[in-house]
Amino acid sequence: MSSSSKVKLVELFYDVISPYSWLAFEVLCRYRNVWNINLKLRPALLGGVYKGAGNKGPDDVPRKFHYMVTDLLRLGSYAGVPLRVPAQPINVLLGKGSLPAMRFVTAVAEDSAGDAKVERVSRELWTRIWSNGQDINQLSSLAEVGQKAGLSARKVEELLEQSQSKAIKDKLWNTTEKALDYGGFGFPLTVCHVEGEPKVFFGSDRFELMAHCLGERWVGPKPVHPSVMDSQSHATMRAAMAS
Amino acid sequence: MSSSSKVKLVELFYDVISPYSWLAFEVLCRYRNVWNINLKLRPALLGGVYKGAGNKGPDDVPRKFHYMVTDLLRLGSYAGVPLRVPAQPINVLLGKGSLPAMRFVTAVAEDSAGDAKVERVSRELWTRIWSNGQDINQLSSLAEVGQKAGLSARKVEELLEQSQSKAIKDKLWNTTEKALDYGGFGFPLTVCHVEGEPKVFFGSDRFELMAHCLGERWVGPKPVHPSVMDSQSHATMRAAMAS
Question: Domain named DSBA-like thioredoxin: which ranges (chains A, B) (predicted)?
Answer without folding.
Answer: 10-213
